[in-house]
Backbone:
């Protein structure tokens, strides 16, 4: 299996679990599935990427747990943006999610930072406050991307400024209408979605 496929599908599974853990349809049934998947993915994805077969077996279980979580809790705007940018810029689904997830965590943290902090605590990440724990979670996800040769922005992926500018408004509009937007923990309109996309393009931390 190509290494990029291991990276992209693994990050897709992580996005399923993280989005399910904060989604508005989350429940006591989906939470443990999502959290356990996140722990397993953190422990096994990079090892699997580097050829460890035992870790790859664990990734198979983790992605199924994440699937069971999001089938019940639904997803969020990482997926909304991945669906619509994937169609325009031809970015593989899992790669798109991997790039966008840190920005979406920063955007959603205004609404549910304690949920992301709980993930960070469970993973043993550092931080003395919810804000610091959220920052550690974002940084951990970026480290996974760095370790698996996934870019950190749309510009880094290779989307040209011209191509981005020509499409950003329609992508934002369509992403708001995506089926996954309704279960995102923080509401979003076309203008805010366009702003999120601008930050993702430039690789700037979301500060609104
Ligand atoms: Fe997905």
Residues:
């Amino acid at each position: 299996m190509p290494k990029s496929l291991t990276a992209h599908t693994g990050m897709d599974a992580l996005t399923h679990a993280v989005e399910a853990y904060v989604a508005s349809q989350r429940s006591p049934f989906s939470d443990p599935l999502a959290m356990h998947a996140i722990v397993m993915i953190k422990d096994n994805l990079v090892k699997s990427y580097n050829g460890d077969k035992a870790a790859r077996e664990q990734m198979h279980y983790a992605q199924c747990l994440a699937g069971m979580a999001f089938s019940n809790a639904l997803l969020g705007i990482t997926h909304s943006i991945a669906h619509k940018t994937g169609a325009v810029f031809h970015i593989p689904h899992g790669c798109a999610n991997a790039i966008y997830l840190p920005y979406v965590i920063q955007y959603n943290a205004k609404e549910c930072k304690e949920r992301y902090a709980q993930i960070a605590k469970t993973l043993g990440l550092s931080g003395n406050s919810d804000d610091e724990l959220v920052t550690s979670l974002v940084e951990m996800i970026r480290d996974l991307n760095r370790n698996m040769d996934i870019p950190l922005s749309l510009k880094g992926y290779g989307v040209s400024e011209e191509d981005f500018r020509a499409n950003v408004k329609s992508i934002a509009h369509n992403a708001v209408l995506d089926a996954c937007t309704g279960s995102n923990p923080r509401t979003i309109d076309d203008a805010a979605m366009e702003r999120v996309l601008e930050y993702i393009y430039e690789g700037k931390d979301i500060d609104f």
In short: Residues 12, 15-16, 79, 93, 97 surround fe (ii) ion (CB under 6 Å).
